[in-house]
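=== RUN LOG ===
request id: a7f3
mode: sequence -> structure
chains: 1
length: 533
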Amino acid sequence: MTEKSLAVYVRRFFSGTLLSRISGMVRDLTMAFAFGDHPSVAAFMVAFRLSNLFRRLLGEGPFQSAFIPHFEGLRVQDPAKANFFFRKLSLLVLLLLAAITIFVEGGIAALLSWGTLSEGNREIIALTGWLFPAILFICLYGVNISLLNCYDSFFIPSIAPIVCNITWIGAAFFLRNKDPSMAMPTLANWIVIGFIGQWLLTLPLTLKYAAAGWKEWFRFHIPKEVKDLAKAFTLGAIGVGAVQINAFVDALFARYADIRGPAYLWYSIRLEQLALAIFGIACISAVVPRLSRAIKKNDSLEAQNLFSISCRRILAVMIPCTFAIAALGTAAVNLIYGRGHFTEFAIGKTTACLWAYGLGLVPTTLVILFSAIFYAQNNFRKPMLISVVTVAVNSVLNAIFVFGFQMGAISTALATSISAFANCWILYRMTGKMGWKPGISRTRIFKIGGAGCFAFICAFTVDGLMSSPMMLSPLIEGALNLPRGVAAQLMTFVIQFVAFAAGLLFYAYAFKCIDLIELLQDFVFRKKITEVE
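=== RESULT ===
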């Protein structure tokens, strides 16, 4: 596996993810336009997080981290055995999730009927009940894409969320004239339908690779390999379960600090995750199956090569992205959300949260890569313990920022980024002691940072020359004087983006920043690639 061949797989994931994230951006734009930062929208977002706790456990995160090295280990021995393992695992997940859904829905019905709840909490619990059935299909989708990634299929899995986003967009648009408190339950129902469509899109390709008749799928038998995976998964689930509970607690902190706070966090983190998913996770998702395969084969040279390539690419992409969020954040938030019921005040709060989340882009992406090494070696205990420590750090910081400094909704975003740095530093030290080398010198990292800083200065200078400077306007109390017309919003963003991109390109070539130049050659100028493994 060469750096050029890896770039091919990353581009396949990137293209699908880009389209998917664009549809997600349109979805959030529609939500902001239709409902703004209404308290019922904030309640909906808290309910969405609560209902998605199991998503991170059985649909993403530890499940995929445990599944990929386990499946690759079996496939090296016998592909038919690996596919049999997948089919039985899928059936077990289906039955488990169906039982969990029935139990949770029954508990929610009892709580709403006989519990003593405030009006706000009742709204959150009711919306959770409407949203929770989607977990079944979200997690089955996660199981499918874990298999497809092992077979180097990245485009269909990454583009599938478009189905859900289009459904969500259509529902929000048609409900835009209803009172948000009345519209949210109907919107939740349509979102469940959207997640069903997302799962169905991955099903044909999954059935192709799993290669078996229907009887083989529904013949209940739990093989030893599934039991082994369950043991490995349990430790990872504990760590990620703690993180997900913490994510829900984050939303509660934000709601305590500001009743509209969860809405600001929702809109800001969607933009932060746009950069994370399109660029950072594109590289991670493409490399993890191969990294696991190399470790299982005891090919330390290949594994180290993949790890070094990934580290260099992550830093070359995510460091400039961090500066881009700082430079273009206000213009981007205003362009995407600045219309309809989304006020200037909401734009300022959302941008401030986006800046805070953006600080954690680099460590968040590196944590995924560092953790993959432990998972490939069937070592789930250490990442689990580190996750629990990180959760504790995040909770303490939330309490300090919310109750001590009374910083409002930005407290949660800032605490999340700081705890990500703590998580990354611990994993970096541990992988270093195990002999894993990032393969990039401090001088090269400094050059990448210098390029991002220079690009920021260029964008800031251009912004200052405009009639109504807006880059740092969220720091100003009172009216922000932001453009509200689409043409003016787009022009402002494009001007700042061009200034930032030009500054980045100039610095990269003027100071021979090798990592950025290679990145541009592979993904922008699309230098011809003749070798694909």
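=== NOTES ===
The first helix runs from residue 3 to 35.
The chain is about 80% helix and 0% strand.
=== END ===
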